Every structure is written in structure tokens, then in C-alpha cells.
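Contributing: when you submit paired examples, paste them exactly as shown. First protein:
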Amino acid sequence: MTANPHRERPSDEANSKQLAIARREGAAYQEGLRVMATEVADTGGTQQAGDYIVGFAQERAEGMYHLRGEGKLEWMEPEDENCHLEVSVSDAGDGRFIPYLTIYATLTKDSGEVVGPTRMPFVWHPGLYHYGANLKVPGDGTYDLAVKIEPPDFMRHDEVNGKRYAETVEVSFPRVRITTGRE
């Protein structure tokens, strides 16, 4: 078995104990991602791309709360949307969710229709933080999913482990079976 080249090493910013705690947090997140992608969603999957583990899940379009002013949350049902697409991005070294990313997703139906690119905003979810949006797609069928992750502008701590997430990453999930509708 080879060592994970993305795994963090102890440094003056994070000792072995701190890194082990981060890996446990990442393992819990990865278990939540597995459940979302394989047990809850209609379809889903993951793959590693450079410093990232990129996952997706697809379900029927669903309602969500939107902030409409200080202390005012409003439940919004999907209108014309018939697909809810979720994207997860986590660190390939420790498995933890990565916040503050700019992510775009494009779905291309096997017949050639293209939906997107669509920005995937952060979605707070009680089971798994992720990025996602409701979309209007041409209907049930097979689609290619392309995910683009821009390099984040957040600061990185640690001279040993901090040089990461500096380039745009694009990931493809070919032949994804999409089931449309509304929950």
C-alpha cells in the first residue's frame, strides 16, 4: 500500500494529534457523502481530482428556505426546475469538506442539449454540507456531468501543508442517469 501523497504532515502549525482529529472529521464527512450519493439520492458518485475528492448526487427538485431579510426565512418550492444537483468537494488528504468554493456544473444530455454552466452555491443541510441547485433539464435520461472548481481565494495556513487548491480543477462524470421531477 502506498502512502497518500495528499496526506498532511506534522508541522509547526499542526501536530500529529491535530492532524489525526482532522482525519477523523474527514472520515465522518466521507461516510455522510457515501450515504448521500448511494442511499439517499437517485444517483451519485465520487472521484479524486488533484487535491480534491469531488462527489455528486442527483435527486428530484426540492424546496428550500431562502433568507429574505434579517430573521425572515421563506420556504421556496421549485417552479420550473425538475432536478436537484448536489456537489461535494473535500480535501483528498484528510477528507474534510472545503468551504468557500466557486463551483460550476454543466449537464449535457446524450441528445446534445446543454444545461449550464450553473453556479453551485453552498447549501446548508442537516446531514451533509454541500453545494447545489435546482435546475430545469430536458427530462429523464443519460447526461454527462462536468464540474469546474475555481481556485479559492481564502488564505492557507501552514508552510508545510498550505500549498494547495491553487489551480482550476475540472471533473467529468460520464453517462449519469438523471431522474426528473419534484419532491
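Second protein:
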Amino acid sequence: MEYRFLGRSGLKVSNISLGSMTFGEAEGLHGLFKMPKQADEALAHTILDRFAELGGNCIDTADFYSFGQSERIVGSWLKKQDRDKFVVSSKGRISMDPSNPNKEGHSRRHILEGVDQSLERLQTDYLDVYMMLLWDYAVPIEETVRTVNDLIRCGKVRYFGASNMKGWQIQKLIDTCKYMGMEPVISLQEQYSLLERHSELEEFDVCEQEGLGVMAWGVQKGGLLTGKFKRDATPSPTKSRLGYFHKNGIPFVRWDSFKDNVEYWDLIDIMKTIGEKHGKSIAQVALRWVLQNKVVSTAVIGATSVSQLEENVAAASGWELTAAEMDQLNTKTAIEIDYPYGFMKPHIRTNPFM
């Protein structure tokens, strides 16, 4: 794999990160962690071993992934490794105990408690990146920023990141850190794919202007950008996540929104043609397109098998989509630019010294 700086920080991450949402099994959160092919500890360790062999150094998790099981699985693997070779990120926000009103959000109490518990599960002394997941309207942002800064100063966290935010939210977080003289935000983890480009309108503008590295997730849109689904066949609820979402009414990715969408199937045909020219799969084309966005430091992938991991990692280096192919894909999936974005576009100026 290639290694890229995570924003303006001196931290380098593999351009493909391994997400651990598929590790472990648990009830709750719309059945998200009961999906097909959730990996048990043995399989997860095999996947992690191969990821490391292929040069991967960035592992992404969260306390609520399988409600602690994911971090425990990563931790039991990490304990056997040279910890300094890996960049481990985690995040907190979602309730870990609905019976306790103080076990959610970005309050000082919950962050301090949550990070300590994450470190215990991960069997490590520090998180390389701790992310503020979603905006918390119930807590002053100054409280959150100061708490994370305290964790950085005492060595439990090395860098501050954010995840799943609107443009104004990430900008306010950045500005608050500056105003308070605290450690800066270095990254934004955001959903991004050929089928989810909204972040280009504002969030990525902020990242480019402020020097944040993007950790892109959902790069294959729940399997929709892998080419494994057929026009006239409903995805299997026992063999695919998309089918599981469809059967159980989980609103993360909706098959009904795409099954009769002519533009979607035309895109898959275009990706197939492009992939054949490079000897690559549709899934690899989807991932390569994300990696060629200049604000993306790393693409976060999930894997439920070693073969799936290897296919995705094959998109990491050694080939590129041509400028013409990028333009074709960009044009095909261009989002509608409403006011004020379209109104502003003809008047944008740039300065190479800024």
C-alpha cells in the first residue's frame, strides 16, 4: 500500500484502512451487528494478519461497534503485535447503556470514561486518533474540545479527529480549537463514494482549506458499487448486507432506491468497461476513484473474508484511473448544484500562495 499523511499532521497512514464494524456480533442498533458474515475472533484475526502482511497500518474502530466486541477483538490481536507499527483510531458518541443517561454524547464525563474503557478493551495505552462522532447539540463544544485536549496532554490520545459532520460543524470545531489554543483537528471521517458525493459541496472544502485528511468510509456504498447485484434479483438477506438491510427495513442503504434506477445501472456498466481495460473489478474501480481525490488520506474498508480484503487492497497502488476515466465517472455521478453553490462557482478565485 501507499502511505499518506493524515492531513497536516506528521502521522502517516496506509491509503487503505481496515474498518472493524464487521468484527463481533451483538443485539441493538437496528440489528446492525447481526448482519450476515459478521466475523468471529478467529476470522477477524486472520483478516488482521493479512492486512498487516499487505502493508496496512491503520485500523479503525469505535466503542459501539458490536457494543465493545469489536474493540476487544482488535485488542486481543493488537496485544500480540508491535503496537508502534499501527495507527488505531476509535470514536465515541452512541449510547453504550440505554439505562444510564450519562453513557452517551460528548460530555466530559462520557468521553473520559469511554476512552478509558476503549483503551482497556483494545489493550493499549493510547489511541492514535480519537474522533468526535456526530455533533452533540446538548454539550458546549468547548467542553468537548478541552476534554479531548486533556486526553492528548496526558498521553491517552495522540490526535483529534471528527466523524460524520456538516460543513459548518467541522469548521466550528476547527475554529474552537484555534480560539482556545488547543490541539488541532487533523481528520474527518466521512461517507464518500460515486453514489454519495454530497461532502464535496462543503465538508471537503473545509478539509482542503484547513488541512484535514479525509478518512472515507462507505466507499462501495454497502456493496452497490461491487457489481455483484443483478437488475432483476433481490439481494439475499443471508448472503449480503444490502439484502439484510432490505429485508429488515434498515435505512442505511435502500435497495428500492436503486433496483429500477437506470442511471445506477448505466454507472455499473461504465465501471465494468473501465475495469476491464485495467484488468480490475468494479469494486476496485470504485475504491480507486475515491483514492484519487486529493483530500482523501485513506479509504476505510470492511472485510468479511481474506479474499475480499485482498481484492480491495489491489486497488491501493500500481495503477490509476486515467484523467478521461475520472472525468467520465465524475460526469456520470455529478450531483445537482443548487443555490448558493452554482451561483458562487463562476466567481471563485484561487491564489497559489494560499
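If you have annotations for the second protein, write them as plain sentences, like these:
The longest strand covers residues 127-133.
The mean pLDDT is 95.
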